[in-house]
Structure prediction request, 415 residues.
Amino acid sequence: MGERLAIHGGMPLRERGFARWPEYGDPEQRALKRVLDSYSWGGFPSPNTEARAFELAFARYLGCSAAVPCVNGTFALTLALQAARISPGAEVITSAYTFVGTAGGILAAGAVPVFVDVLPDTYCLDPALVEQAITPRTEAVVAVHLADSMADMDRLPELCAGHELLLVEDCAHAHGASWRGRRAGTLGDLGGFSMQSTKLLTAGEGGAVTTSNADYDRRLRALINCGRLAADGTGEPMLGHNLRMTEWQAAVLREQLERLPEQHTRRRTRRAVFERALSELPGLSLSPVDPRVSERTFYQTIVRYDRQAFADVPRDAVIAALNAEGVPCSGRFYVPLPEDPLFARDPLTNHAVRAGIDYTGLSFPVAARAAYEESIWLPHWLFLGTEADARDVAGAFRKVQQAAESLRDGSTPRG
Prediction:
């Protein structure tokens, strides 16, 4: 039957933790001291010194004209849509399998999210379903790069160009990912990044909007700075808000960006060790390698789970067992967005509901299968440590698989 599982009172495969995240050291400490000594800690004047330096470095890394810092990834999407002058009530097509912030950013821009299902191999937007969802009210598509995959950035730009739609990339998971040699955030009209605590590039919170369109760039700078016009008085009147990034965050991000390429290399190497070990186990597979993705990044590694190879045990029971073995993972990382309790059907805070948009009864079978049956999400810091760490992650899957019978109906007593 296999070794007794930790969830049933056995010894966990791993009792020590994995690599700590975020990583930091003397460069970040010096950066924070630099801000402290500057007596200029906030985002005004905009862009302030550290924010401007980070923006230039990030835009250079990505290969775009502007990477305007802002408060978070949700408002990065809002700002992108507002800078492109999306009409009130316009429909914006996006993924049904993403964080609620994707929908929240669309709603905060005064638009209405239209959800479509995802592809079964990448869990990214299905371009064929996007095309079917286009109506005369559609003005934009928000393409989500998810976990360890990228949305189809051949078909989606072609589709949007043919229908004269704005294309915004949600790059919250994709700092440094590349499609045919071009970085995520530079393939659409605009891109939105998150620098929240778990992200590949982080300052705890923060975001950025990328573009190479001069008009969008000018509007973005006004919108994050309370609607103020440029220093030379040029621009157009818009109602903005204080959505500026603080100097603390920008200073840390400058140093974190220096670390990012090496971290990508380390993750890629360690994950390859995990992939080789996992390939020996039946019923488990990883997201396919799309040859058009010239540089993969791994915000999360998604393992596909086939319960038939685990004594017909439901996925969530296996996830609980893996966590007990010392390998942090999750299954319902996302659920189909209309089912997410964070996407509250409250007319006072969700203007799509107030406008009479009814998402009940919609079906997203691929997203539902991912959410409730087949996806196991592994955080990126599991692959920032040693090769032995990566082998331990696979070892936990092996141990649980060998003792899977004991998880069925709780047949092995606890304690």
Remarks:
- The chain has twelve helices and 13 strands.
